[in-house]
Amino acid sequence: MDGAAANVEDSAVDIVQDLDRLKLLIVFDALLVEGNLGRAAEKLGKTPSAISRNLRQLRDHYGQEVFYRTGKGMIPTPFAESLRLRIRALVSEANALLYPGPDKAASPGPLLHHPPLALNQWSEAGPDSTELARRLAVSARDADPVQRFAGYIAMIGNAAGQTRPMSLSEAEDAFGILLSGAIADAQVGAFLIALRSRGLMSQELAGFSRAARQHSQLPAIGNGPADLDWPAYLSPRAQGIPLFIHAARLVASAGYKVVLHGYDGGIVHQAFDHANLHVAPSTRALSSTNSVAFLPIGYFAPGVSKLAALYPLFMMPNAAHFIAAMLNPGAAGTTLAGQRGGEHPKLHRDTARLLGWDTFGVLSGQRDAAQIIAGKGQDLFLLQAEETTDHWVVGPTVQKSKQHPHAAGFTRLETWQAIWDGYFEPPTAIGEIIETTAVALKLLGGSEASLTNTREFARELWARRRRETS
Asked: What pTM does this model have?
């Protein structure tokens, strides 16, 4: 075979490979639209195993994950979400070229720019994706906030295949309208339920968080009085002793200003009152407070607090419970958040990255505050200097102690204070405090800090603590 023939054959192979990659984009689009592997397979006339194989090929091609598998389906990663508009436009244009219809010209033109909604496979019962997108686009530009918000509800709450996530700017606008009080209660409920049923996307949480912080007039991240932000939104039903507060006190004793925030009157609020630690009356008071302080959410973000208080009416968390961890009222450059095992475990870390924050850590566990749990392995998702890393940390070994404060008639908070004061020294509890402190110090120390070194420092801080430390 001469050189020219070889080049022709190589070109043919390249064309076939490129066509195969284009088919992967069709699968990519179907998964973005449907959010479910089985439904995507049905739309494309493929088997779920074939779609799963294509998904692996997409991951290999891009060199990173493109979807998280969760109990609610396939959640796109921030990278996949960034490609959504371009992929949807490409597939929509391909459909328009293949099936132009009697009233559409088949001549070349620019790619379609309507928002991504669904594959153009519809029954006669509803509008096609272009028409539905046009209606929503008109609603989104409406000057009337009630009508504009109605468009956002339709955008996220329609039937499968007829919906799409909001962009960051759309989510910011939607939540700003919600906090303004300009819409009907029915719209608030519909919006929150639609989000909960489908699941929050990172760009939506980023937009909500930005709107909530702006509504509360909070300073830009990194420009506030705090060094470490520690969200602590424990459920009223949460059991156990809030040992992470002692860890925050140790971090503060190392010279950092730590701000915890959580529910008004909750266990964290009660613990600060019990130990005479500082409860700040406002964000302004944080600049002159002691090195560790607690700020109730009702004091600085009453709108978000009211939404979170709707839990008993829905019997499930809503968007406000996710937003609370992103408020950062002290505008610290570093946040250490806790998260129960959920459908999207990296949601808050991915959101922080979209917002351009510098250092953010999420520690999975059994409570909505960062705390190492004895005898358990936990995920630690870190964002440091625009780099994301995933770690696995193991809590201290559970050790039996002869001292049982509860058995001696101590209350939950009395037990908590007695551990700090040294009247009771259960090894397991002390181990949890030290390990939690070590994680916080690692975040504050930057990417070069090691848990081995911060653990030793945490032990020193525990050994030299003083009862009057605050």
From this structure: 0.79
